[in-house]
Write a structure and sequence with these properties.
Layout: E1 12-17, E2 20-25, H1 30-36, E3 43-44, E4 51-52, E5 65-68, E6 71-75, E7 86-91
Parallel strand pairs: 1-7, 3-7
Antiparallel strand pairs: 1-2, 3-4, 5-6, 5-7
The structure holds FE2/S2 (inorganic) cluster.
FE2/S2 (inorganic) cluster is lined by residues 31, 54-57, 59-64, 75, 77.
Length: 102
């Protein structure tokens, strides 16, 4: 469904999603990199546990929430992927904590 245009392939970075290495364009958002890699779901809902994935790609729908380097509630569509980044599925609601927003 999603395919990268040949002229849009730039420098590459490698990050992990739930421990699985994924190579992406250095210009990708986390959500774009996951979709390009075939990942369709990156979180589960707090109420029913159903799987959700990036939808609007512009910071409105919050369907792209993931844990990035241990910090939950990050919108994958608004974060640029970095080499060595550790991205994880956000399961349900992320607990509130005093951790600073990055
Ligand atoms: S995909 Fe909608 S807020 Fe990220």
């Amino acid at each position: 469904m999603f395919r990268r245009a040949p002229d849009r392939i730039r420098a590459q970075v490698t990050f992990t999603f739930d421990g699985i290495p994924i190579t992406a364009s250095a210009e990708d958002s986390v959500a774009a990199a996951l979709l390009a890699a075939g990942v369709r779901a990156c979180r589960t809902t707090p109420v029913s546990g159903s799987a959700r994935g990036p939808y609007c790609m512009m910071g409105v729908c919050f369907e792209c929430l993931v844990r990035i380097d241990g910090v939950g509630n990050r919108q994958g569509c608004l974060v640029q992927v970095r080499d060595g980044m550790k991205v994880e599925t956000q399961k349900g609601a992320h607990a509130l904590s005093a951790e600073p927003a990055l």
